[in-house]
Design goal:
binds uracil, 6-stranded mixed sheet, 6 strands, alpha/beta, 199 residues, Uracil-DNA Glycosylase, subunit E
Amino acid sequence: MFTLENIADSVIRCSLCPLHATRNHAVPGEGSAHSGIVLLGEGPGYHEDQQGRPFVGASGNLLNELIMSNNLKRSDLFITNIVKCRPPSNRDPSPDEIATCSSHLNHQLSVIKPSVIMTLGRHALSNFFPNELISKVRGKVRQSTNGYKILPTYHPAAILRNPSLRPTIEQDFKTLVEMANQVHQNDDTPESRQLPMFS
Ligand code: URA
Protein backbone atom coordinates (compact mmCIF):
# COMPACT_ATOMS: atom_id res chain seq x y z
CA MET A 1 0.00 0.00 0.00
CA PHE A 2 1.25 3.49 -0.83
CA THR A 3 1.69 6.16 1.83
CA LEU A 4 3.08 9.67 1.33
CA GLU A 5 6.12 8.56 3.34
CA ASN A 6 6.94 5.51 1.25
CA ILE A 7 6.34 7.45 -2.00
CA ALA A 8 8.82 10.08 -0.70
CA ASP A 9 11.31 7.26 -0.04
CA SER A 10 11.05 6.00 -3.59
CA VAL A 11 11.43 9.54 -4.96
CA ILE A 12 14.60 9.99 -2.91
CA ARG A 13 16.01 6.72 -4.29
CA CYS A 14 14.66 7.24 -7.83
CA SER A 15 17.01 6.90 -10.79
CA LEU A 16 14.38 6.51 -13.51
CA CYS A 17 15.44 9.59 -15.51
CA PRO A 18 18.70 11.46 -16.16
CA LEU A 19 17.82 14.23 -13.69
CA HIS A 20 18.86 11.95 -10.82
CA ALA A 21 22.49 12.21 -11.92
CA THR A 22 22.71 15.99 -11.47
CA ARG A 23 20.50 16.51 -8.43
CA ASN A 24 21.74 17.27 -4.93
CA HIS A 25 18.43 16.31 -3.37
CA ALA A 26 15.24 14.94 -4.81
CA VAL A 27 12.20 16.96 -3.71
CA PRO A 28 9.22 14.65 -3.14
CA GLY A 29 6.91 17.33 -1.76
CA GLU A 30 5.64 18.10 1.71
CA GLY A 31 2.59 18.92 3.76
CA SER A 32 -0.57 17.11 4.60
CA ALA A 33 -3.44 15.41 2.83
CA HIS A 34 -5.97 16.71 5.35
CA SER A 35 -7.15 19.85 3.59
CA GLY A 36 -7.56 18.01 0.30
CA ILE A 37 -5.68 20.85 -1.40
CA VAL A 38 -2.64 20.12 -3.58
CA LEU A 39 -0.46 22.92 -4.93
CA LEU A 40 1.46 21.68 -7.96
CA GLY A 41 4.52 23.49 -9.32
CA GLU A 42 6.91 22.75 -12.14
CA GLY A 43 10.10 21.42 -10.62
CA PRO A 44 12.71 22.19 -7.96
CA GLY A 45 14.99 25.16 -8.46
CA TYR A 46 18.41 25.82 -6.91
CA HIS A 47 17.25 26.26 -3.31
CA GLU A 48 14.80 23.37 -3.44
CA ASP A 49 17.57 21.11 -4.78
CA GLN A 50 19.86 22.24 -1.94
CA GLN A 51 17.27 21.62 0.77
CA GLY A 52 15.13 18.78 -0.59
CA ARG A 53 11.96 20.85 0.03
CA PRO A 54 9.55 22.44 -2.46
CA PHE A 55 9.14 26.19 -2.88
CA VAL A 56 11.77 27.44 -0.44
CA GLY A 57 13.42 30.07 -2.69
CA ALA A 58 12.09 33.37 -4.06
CA SER A 59 8.97 31.73 -5.57
CA GLY A 60 8.44 29.98 -2.27
CA ASN A 61 8.41 33.30 -0.41
CA LEU A 62 5.73 34.56 -2.78
CA LEU A 63 3.77 31.33 -2.44
CA ASN A 64 3.94 31.58 1.36
CA GLU A 65 2.55 35.13 1.18
CA LEU A 66 -0.35 33.96 -1.00
CA ILE A 67 -1.05 31.05 1.36
CA MET A 68 -0.89 33.12 4.55
CA SER A 69 -2.87 36.06 3.24
CA ASN A 70 -5.76 33.64 2.71
CA ASN A 71 -5.52 32.32 6.28
CA LEU A 72 -4.29 29.00 5.01
CA LYS A 73 -1.44 27.13 6.68
CA ARG A 74 1.32 25.81 4.46
CA SER A 75 1.50 22.61 6.51
CA ASP A 76 -2.21 21.90 5.87
CA LEU A 77 -1.66 21.77 2.11
CA PHE A 78 0.33 19.28 0.09
CA ILE A 79 2.91 21.07 -2.05
CA THR A 80 4.78 19.27 -4.80
CA ASN A 81 5.97 19.50 -8.39
CA ILE A 82 5.47 17.60 -11.62
CA VAL A 83 9.17 16.70 -11.66
CA LYS A 84 10.86 15.89 -8.38
CA CYS A 85 14.48 16.65 -9.36
CA ARG A 86 15.96 19.93 -10.54
CA PRO A 87 16.50 20.28 -14.27
CA PRO A 88 20.08 21.60 -14.72
CA SER A 89 20.31 25.40 -14.97
CA ASN A 90 16.54 25.54 -14.30
CA ARG A 91 15.75 24.55 -17.87
CA ASP A 92 12.22 23.34 -18.62
CA PRO A 93 11.67 19.67 -17.79
CA SER A 94 11.57 17.58 -20.97
CA PRO A 95 8.41 15.68 -21.99
CA ASP A 96 10.26 12.40 -21.26
CA GLU A 97 11.27 13.57 -17.78
CA ILE A 98 7.71 14.69 -17.03
CA ALA A 99 6.26 11.40 -18.28
CA THR A 100 8.74 9.32 -16.29
CA CYS A 101 8.19 11.30 -13.09
CA SER A 102 4.40 11.21 -13.42
CA SER A 103 4.21 7.84 -11.68
CA HIS A 104 5.37 9.50 -8.43
CA LEU A 105 2.80 12.28 -8.76
CA ASN A 106 0.04 9.82 -9.64
CA HIS A 107 0.84 7.75 -6.56
CA GLN A 108 0.78 10.87 -4.38
CA LEU A 109 -2.59 11.93 -5.81
CA SER A 110 -4.03 8.45 -5.33
CA VAL A 111 -3.16 8.64 -1.62
CA ILE A 112 -4.30 12.25 -1.08
CA LYS A 113 -7.49 12.03 -3.19
CA PRO A 114 -7.44 15.83 -3.47
CA SER A 115 -10.64 17.83 -3.60
CA VAL A 116 -8.78 20.43 -5.68
CA ILE A 117 -5.39 20.64 -7.38
CA MET A 118 -4.15 24.17 -8.00
CA THR A 119 -1.66 24.08 -10.87
CA LEU A 120 1.04 26.75 -10.68
CA GLY A 121 2.29 27.71 -14.12
CA ARG A 122 1.99 26.30 -17.60
CA HIS A 123 3.91 23.05 -17.10
CA ALA A 124 1.70 21.93 -14.24
CA LEU A 125 -1.37 22.98 -16.25
CA SER A 126 -0.28 21.04 -19.33
CA ASN A 127 0.17 17.93 -17.21
CA PHE A 128 -3.67 17.83 -17.15
CA PHE A 129 -4.66 19.99 -20.13
CA PRO A 130 -1.86 19.89 -22.71
CA ASN A 131 -3.56 22.16 -25.22
CA GLU A 132 -4.78 24.95 -22.99
CA LEU A 133 -3.30 28.42 -22.61
CA ILE A 134 -2.87 29.51 -19.02
CA SER A 135 -4.05 33.04 -19.81
CA LYS A 136 -7.36 31.59 -21.07
CA VAL A 137 -8.11 29.02 -18.38
CA ARG A 138 -6.67 30.42 -15.16
CA GLY A 139 -9.11 30.85 -12.32
CA LYS A 140 -11.62 28.40 -13.84
CA VAL A 141 -12.18 25.01 -12.27
CA ARG A 142 -12.17 22.07 -14.68
CA GLN A 143 -12.35 18.34 -14.26
CA SER A 144 -9.35 16.46 -15.65
CA THR A 145 -9.77 13.23 -17.60
CA ASN A 146 -8.54 11.34 -14.55
CA GLY A 147 -11.28 12.89 -12.43
CA TYR A 148 -9.48 15.64 -10.48
CA LYS A 149 -10.77 19.18 -10.06
CA ILE A 150 -8.07 21.45 -11.44
CA LEU A 151 -7.79 25.16 -10.67
CA PRO A 152 -5.04 26.66 -12.84
CA THR A 153 -3.16 29.81 -11.95
CA TYR A 154 0.12 31.43 -12.91
CA HIS A 155 3.38 30.34 -11.31
CA PRO A 156 4.24 32.62 -8.37
CA ALA A 157 7.55 33.44 -10.11
CA ALA A 158 5.47 35.18 -12.78
CA ILE A 159 4.89 37.93 -10.19
CA LEU A 160 8.66 38.51 -10.11
CA ARG A 161 8.70 39.07 -13.86
CA ASN A 162 5.36 40.85 -14.06
CA PRO A 163 4.13 42.36 -10.77
CA SER A 164 0.82 43.33 -12.36
CA LEU A 165 -0.16 39.62 -12.27
CA ARG A 166 -0.29 39.60 -8.47
CA PRO A 167 -3.99 40.58 -8.11
CA THR A 168 -4.93 37.87 -10.62
CA ILE A 169 -3.08 35.16 -8.69
CA GLU A 170 -4.53 36.51 -5.43
CA GLN A 171 -8.00 36.22 -6.90
CA ASP A 172 -7.32 32.59 -7.89
CA PHE A 173 -6.23 31.82 -4.32
CA LYS A 174 -9.55 33.26 -3.10
CA THR A 175 -11.32 30.84 -5.45
CA LEU A 176 -9.21 28.03 -3.97
CA VAL A 177 -10.33 28.90 -0.45
CA GLU A 178 -13.98 29.12 -1.54
CA MET A 179 -13.72 25.66 -3.11
CA ALA A 180 -12.13 24.22 0.02
CA ASN A 181 -14.90 25.83 2.11
CA GLN A 182 -17.58 24.26 -0.07
CA VAL A 183 -15.99 20.83 0.20
CA HIS A 184 -15.87 21.24 3.94
CA GLN A 185 -19.53 22.28 4.15
CA ASN A 186 -20.59 19.23 2.09
CA ASP A 187 -18.40 16.94 4.14
CA ASP A 188 -20.29 14.84 6.66
CA THR A 189 -17.27 13.03 8.07
CA PRO A 190 -16.30 15.37 10.92
CA GLU A 191 -12.75 14.18 11.40
CA SER A 192 -11.83 14.51 7.75
CA ARG A 193 -10.45 17.51 5.89
CA GLN A 194 -10.48 19.86 8.90
CA LEU A 195 -8.59 23.07 8.32
CA PRO A 196 -7.99 25.43 11.23
CA MET A 197 -9.73 28.17 9.28
CA PHE A 198 -12.94 26.18 9.39
CA SER A 199 -13.01 25.43 13.10
N1 URA B 1 9.37 26.48 -8.68
C1 URA B 1 8.63 25.36 -8.75
O1 URA B 1 7.87 25.15 -9.71
N2 URA B 1 8.73 24.50 -7.77
C2 URA B 1 9.49 24.67 -6.71
O2 URA B 1 9.52 23.81 -5.84
C3 URA B 1 10.25 25.86 -6.65
C4 URA B 1 10.19 26.75 -7.64
